[in-house]
Amino acid sequence: MHAMQNTTTSNGVALSDLKLLLAIASTGNLGGAAKQLGVDHSSAFKKLGALERRIGARLFDRSRNGYRPTPAGEAAIEAAKRISDELLTLERRVLGEDTRLSGVVRVTTTDTLLHVVFPMIAEFRAIEPGIVVEISVANAIYDLSRRDADIAIRPSAVVSEQLVARRVGTVASAVYARADAAWAGEFKSASDQAWVAPDASLSHASSARWIAAHVPLAQIVLRADSLIALMQAAKSGIGATVLPCYLGDSEPLLTRVTPVLEDAAVPLWLITHPDLRHVRRIAALTEFLSQRLQREAARFEGRPVA
């Protein structure tokens, strides 16, 4: 038989005592608890007696039908469950999968960044095949504190101080229109042509703020909840729009009709939660993405790519 470990808590109660309490509570008798813990009946009996003497209270009423917890026993069992849950949480965090370069990492980013991020994920997967990446595409701000995702890649003017944010670039934007539009080479003012614009769900986006500040409301002929949709609308000739340069420059049918908009630039962040940054698989992907995203500085800033 295996001896129960005698690591003790701060009040002198051994962790093995807590395991014994939980085993008796789950099986209803001392013999079943001893078998569950891998010890002999005599050892379990002596340990329970020693625990009751140390606490100064009877924890179980013994009868022919088994062991029934006393009020003191019920309180002790409840405390044991709570401590056991906390220990399991700690164990999962510092041992198990969190110490291995394997498992799932959840990443959230915008639809506009997919053509930039996916080649990076493919390269990472070739290096670390044990890590499975789950991608969630959403324009809304994800709540990392609730583990909606482990890593966020997002352009944003501000980031919560409660999160660990690494700035990996600056995202520039410009006005884009269909390359063969009659006015594309002679853009003069926002009042001269039709516009397609983000809807209220994208009000936090730099493009939405720029259009709200510079484009007359009467000139907006279409709204959408996705910058990809706005790119497609502009490509179809419906109107001009503001796009991140890394997105607008990737579409051959579009052309920039303005220089980079200085008042529409925003930082690009790689974000994790403080509790997760030391999990090896998350740290590995975070570091890899940080290096690769910083290499794309010219593309993000709207400069010629070498």
In short:
Residues 13-70 form the HTH lysR-type domain. The chain has helices at residues 15-27, 30-37, 41-55, 71-94, 114-127, 206-214, 227-235, 245-248, 280-295, 297-301, and strands at residues 60-63, 66-69, 103-109, 131-137, 151-155, 164-171, 173-178, 195-198, 220-224, 241-244, 254-256, 266-272.
Description:
- With 306 residues, the protein is an alpha/beta fold.
- It has helices at residues 15-27, 30-37, 41-55, 71-94, 114-127, 206-214, 227-235, 245-248, 280-295, 297-301; strands at residues 60-63, 66-69, 103-109, 131-137, 151-155, 164-171, 173-178, 195-198, 220-224, 241-244, 254-256, 266-272.
- The strands form 4 sheets. Strands 4-3-5-12-6 form a 5-stranded mixed sheet. A 3-stranded antiparallel sheet has the order 10-7-11. Strands 1-2 form a two-stranded antiparallel ribbon.
- Helix 1 (15-27) packs across helix 4 and helix 2 packs across helix 3 (41-55).
- The chain is elongated.
- The termini are far apart.
- Residues 13-70 form the HTH lysR-type domain.
- InterPro entries: LysR-type_TF_proteobact-type (IPR058163), LysR_HTH_N (IPR000847), LysR_subst-bd (IPR005119), WH-like_DNA-bd_sf (IPR036388), WH_DNA-bd_sf (IPR036390).
Number of E-type strands: 12
**Spatial strand order of the main sheet:** 4-3-5-12-6
Q: What distance separates the N and C termini?
A: 69 Å
Number of helices: 10
At the fold tier of CATH, the topology name of the largest domain is: D-Maltodextrin-Binding Protein, domain 2
CATH architecture of the largest domain: 3-Layer(aba) Sandwich
The ordered H/E elements are HHHEEHEHEEEEEHEHEHEEHH
How many separate structural domains?
Answer: 3
Content-based structural category: alpha/beta
CATH class of the largest domain equals Alpha Beta
What's the assembly state of these chains?
A: single chain
Indicate the proportion of strand residues.
Answer: 15-25%
User: Can you tell me the CATH superfamily of the largest domain?
Assistant: Periplasmic binding protein-like II
Which stretches of 5+ consecutive residues score pLDDT under 50?
1-10
> What value does the average pLDDT take?
86
Keywords: DNA-binding, Transcription, Transcription regulation
Pfam family, one: LysR_substrate
Organism: Lysobacter auxotrophicus
Domain HTH lysR-type: 13-70
